[in-house]
């Protein structure tokens, strides 16, 4: 068959609701909105886990963290998997290009070109010009905080610009008769929240939309929300006063990415490489962006962290804003397998979205619920505990992903407007997101919702059975469902 080119755009820590196309009042990514507007946009897309490495490994393997076993950012080397996205595309004859952030187990030798790895304050070793190296030192000194002045370096030093340079160079070196897979993996809009002109002044802090809830939300939520809020306040007293500047920088970073995507796709069009190209756009997870008086991520499974942008455009994909079906980052690999008419590898738990993208029939119940996981195991810490961390309690430096915020295990179930959370201690949370989008009114013990809670708990149990690992393969023959669909009528 004729293989389409594939471009995977991945941002880091981008909320699903911060572009005009998704309903945000400011126009942060006009080019990307237009590009993906010709395809399918999933309004109910979720990460498998609200932190980088587990989510990215779910994208690669199509497996949930409880199966691939990477439940914290420092554990990528412990992955358990079968064939992954790189294997599938290599076997299908693709030239494989990566430009940008890695934060997974694959390495340079696994790709034909590797303009990587980019982190949040440095680029690939030995690849920077003297000015770019000065910029990276400046980024490190910013210590993942919020820039209050325009970044004193030009756009050409910013990582999205350099990543697009690497991707363009890779495509230019790919023979015209060979399909390519290009992964544009941007470290932004992840902290540090900085941006040069004209982006710094493009969005006025005074025009930032109001927060869903401020620090009072963290206090009301308690637990790790309150613990993390107190930790940051100890280290950076009064930090929450900068939330409008923080949001303005975040918007500016999105527009900077958008302009570089425009440059990349302009090159594809000018070289004739855009006509048979599937484009996927996802993020690994979201960002508080000031909600709950918090920055970055770390505590809980709030919608601002769990929901992600997920859109697909290209040949055969219908234009649609799908606001009904729950889809997952784990669904990307089996979707690509279906698009290429190749077998979904054993051990993959995600479901193909290709029939949804092309207008074929599919069972509604298959996508009526969504599921996610959080935590590296053991027991959760109490709000007053201060165990040893991988950074000192003293000083300004902190990592919101740490022993306390990531301890324990929590699983999430979504159906309709309902959200159910359950942790290893048996603590439950139940929210009506239509009435309570900030998730402040826990109705788990509300007698009026007893039947709803029971039905959602059954849904959650089914998902927890579903993500039990089929690997390793042995003597018995595994029965596979078409498209990895389990619901009745999944053909």
UniProtKB/TrEMBL annotation:
Name of the molecule in the record: Arylsulfatase A-like enzyme
Record-annotated Sulfatase N-terminal domain positions: 4-341
Highest taxon in the source lineage: Bacteria
Organism of provenance: Nonomuraea angiospora
Family label: Belongs to the sulfatase family.
PANTHER family: ARYLSULFATASE FAMILY MEMBER, ENDO-4-O-SULFATASE
Keyword match Acyltransferase: no
Keywords: Hydrolase
InterPro entries, alphabetized: Alkaline_phosphatase_core_sf, Sulfatase, Sulfatase_N
